[in-house]
Amino acid sequence: MSPVEVGTYAIFALIALIWIGMPIGVGMLVVSFIGVTLIRNDAVAVNMMASVANDSLEEYLYAVVPLFVLMGLLVTVSNVGRDTFDVFQRMLGRISAGLGMATVFANAVFASITGISIASATVFSRIAVPEMTRHGYTRKFATGVVAGSSVLGMLIPPSLLMIVYAVLAEQSVGAMFLAGIGPGLLLSFVFCAAIAWMARRNRSFVFETDDTEDYESIGAWAVMQKFIPILALMIVVLGGLYGGFLNPTEAGAAGAAGALIIALLRRSLDRRSFWRLLVETGQITVSVLFLILAATFFSRMLALSGVPRELAEFFLGNSIGPWGFLVLYLLLIIALGCLIDSISIMLIMLPIALPVADAAGFDLIWFGVLTVVAVEMGLLTPPFGLSVYTIKSAMDDPDLKVGEIFRGTFPFVLAMAASLVILILFPSISTWITRI
């Protein structure tokens, strides 16, 4: 077999292994080792695996992963999500569908200090959904808003997916974080516009009964007390990062320290729960770094096979062209989102797509933002829909059906698709702040 044939068969073999249930990291290592062995020999495969293990994980940059993960977990246990929702409920609760908009903006702020969509879905399913249903909103709309706005956790910095993309694409993590601000705000406002439109044109979808419940009265001073810790953490992390005072790893360390202080001051952390958070941080970090190692090996195997070069010539040398490639790539990403998780999609697709995108002359920062938005749509689409199943699990309500949540998320999937089109047509939304 020619190297190109080996690389092509390796891609299909990896998809088949994932489909039958093999962990993606293990599947990538197995397929890559066999692929390099067939292209060269087993000695080269062993040496390349050892080189990848050393080169892909020795960088100082990778310390950013456990630090931001720890910060997100500490923020989750310290009830910052509840305080964020209370602040926006005070501001927006009395306007039409205001609790839905409050959930979106609370999720946007919460995303800026956690970076994990599943954390947002878990927290706000327990906070926002009961409050919205108490005020007459339908359960499908309430759960749909929480699931839809939870995707902001992977777009608004800091974001775990942004870190993974930056590593695989060899781009600056700080630049990726900056590029996520404009699209994150755009998506937030598009979600709110969709909520306002539904409240006006399709009230039966949004409201089950008229809102006759009283809203909890929160004074201005109480609002400030709730918002000050959130604002302080955002200033430390994002201000330090964007102001040039801290690099991403230092910003993660400062954020983790700030989140620890907040948790201790609120007495929401004891020795046992802190140890549990440290163990969970370690498990998530090891999983992510192992996947990065496996993806790096897979990428080098593909480069050795010449598959990316052949794909670049195919897409860019005929009538499909760069924009045809981009459309097909995003459609494939969205389709894969119905079947497998976000990080797995990126680890499979990026080693193949990045060389083509680079040859097409695309800005790889902008390309990364489009990738993250398309990947995050998979969190809301059946049958996988990880955010949907997270909400179902967190709600622990036997009467709440998964299909009901999926119906609630559908308008937000359409809103994300519209936002994706806007980001394609106006790349500066993603890139302007990185050029300042």
Task: Give an account of the 3D structure.
- Belongs to the TRAP transporter large permease family.
- It is a multi-pass membrane protein.
- It is found in: Cell inner membrane.
- With 436 residues, the protein is mainly α.
- The protein has one domain.
- 76% of the residues lie in helices and 0% in strands.
- The protein is built from 22 helices and no strands.
- Helix 1 runs antiparallel to helix 2, helix 7 runs antiparallel to helix 8 and helix 20 runs antiparallel to helix 21.
- The chain is globular and about 70 Å long.
- 50% of the residues are buried.
- The model has no long low-confidence stretch (mean pLDDT 81).
Structural shape: globular
Low-pLDDT ranges: none
Task: Please identify the structural class as seen in this structure.
Answer: mainly alpha
The domain tally reads: 1
Helix tally?
Answer: 22
Number-wise, the strands total 0
Give the SSE order as H and E letters: HHHHHHHHHHHHHHHHHHHHHH
What integer is the average pLDDT?
81
Proportion in β-strands: under 5%
Our Rg estimate from Cα atoms comes to 22 Å
Helix content: over 70%
Q: What does the main sheet amount to?
A: none
- Measured between the Cα atoms of the first and last residue, the distance is 49 Å
